[in-house]
Design a protein that fits this description.
The complex is a heterodimer of chains A (152) and B (166).
Chain A: H1 19-36, E1 42-46, E2 65-71, E3 77-83, E4 87-91, H2 100-113, E5 119-124, H3 130-140, E6 146-149
Parallel strand pairs in A: 2-5, 5-6
Antiparallel strand pairs in A: 2-3, 3-4
Chain B: H1 2-12, H2 19-36, E1 54-55, E2 65-69, E3 73-76, E4 79-85, E5 88-89, H3 101-120, E6 129-134, H4 140-152, E7 157-164
Helix pairs in contact in B: 3-4
The chains are: A alpha/beta (152), B alpha/beta (166).
């Protein structure tokens, strides 16, 4: 009985895959992927009308209070409450940086007191860097679902 | 003399490259690269030197007009439309309401174009969305001017492009 692969060269079904060409293909593919890859994942933050959710119905009652957070000089923040209640709270810098913890605590307390508070406006001084605005916006979203950019 | 003989023997030995394992490594590398390839739903390509701020942002697929604030210019869809000097608009370019004349003109052109398309094709609607791709070092006064220019031309749904954080 003849075993497959033993019947001489002409009948042999054994063959060796030419890996060199496969490696060539893989090298070209890897180079292409590396050259065109963007390893940054970009996302979007809502800062306009849509940030407050769907368009409000015309008969929807306005919120009891409105909150505005102002980023000022020297990493100081001011939380202004308007509407049925008015107050102004200053949050000074903590160790030379924005005190985001105090801001979240302040906003959470307001949210607890006024459950219909769903949006806040964030504004900043002219010299405040955009990165600080985005960071504060991200922090505020922990307490208030929608944060809109204002001041213009 | 003995040392020379040994050297020759070593040189004559065939170097067999392990191509199979090499192919394995390359395949794994390719799979890893393809997996980590950023196939985000947001098609934003900031120009060289622009650093986006980092924040936690959701997965949302949005196609809208892109306005980029770079160090020396404001770009709409990659085309410079207004000049900046160290992230700030020139005083002559700013209007009393804080918007930029050059940027407003460019945004108005885009708006007109959108309206023409919407008029010709009922499936296309005039979109209030705009994606702001701003460098993290830009002062808020510049971003404010860009937002004011956009709002004046009907772009009121602002989306801020950020690098997704951990």
């Amino acid at each position: 009985m003849m075993v497959s692969g033993e019947g001489g060269k002409s009948n042999s079904q054994d063959f060796e895959l030419n890996l060199a060409s496969i490696i060539d293909c893989l090298t070209v593919l890897i180079t292409f992927v590396l050259a065109s890859a963007s390893f940054l994942s970009i996302g979007l933050l809502d800062a306009g009308i849509a940030a407050a959710g769907a368009a409000p119905a015309t008969d929807a009652a306005p919120p009891s209070v409105n909150v505005t957070v102002e980023l000022g000089k020297d990493q100081a923040m001011i939380v202004k409450l308007g509407g049925k209640a008015t107050s102004t709270t200053a949050i000074p810098a903590k160790a030379g940086a924005w005190d985001h913890e105090a801001l979240v605590q302040n906003l959470s307390a307001l949210k607890q007191k006024w459950p219909d508070l769903n949006a806040a406006v964030l504004t900043a001084g002219d010299a405040v860097e955009y990165r600080d605005v985005v960071k504060t916006m991200e922090t505020m979203r922990k307490a208030v679902p929608a944060v809109l950019l204002g001041g213009f | 003399m003995k040392k020379l003989k040994f050297k020759r023997r070593v040189e004559n030995e065939e170097m067999a490259l392990q191509i199979t394992s090499m192919a394995d490594i390359f395949t794994i590398l390719l799979v890893f690269l393809l997996k980590s390839y950023a196939t985000g739903a947001v098609d934003v390509n900031p120009s060289t030197g622009t650093l986006l701020p980092e924040a936690q942002a959701g997965e949302n697929s949005v196609q809208a007009l892109k306005v980029e604030v770079a160090r020396n210019a404001v770009l709409i869809e990659g085309q410079p439309v207004a000049t900046l000097k160290e992230y700030r608009f020139e005083a002559a370019d700013l209007k009393a309401n804080g918007s930029s004349s050059a940027l407003s003109q460019a945004l108005e052109r885009e708006r007109q174009r959108q309206m023409l398309i919407a008029k010709a094709n009922s499936d296309v609607k005039v979109d209030p969305k705009i994606i702001i791709v701003s460098d993290q070092r830009a002062p808020y006064v510049t971003v404010k001017s860009v937002l004011a220019s956009a709002a004046l031309n009907g772009y009121t749904d602002f989306k801020l492009a950020v690098v997704k954080g951990e």
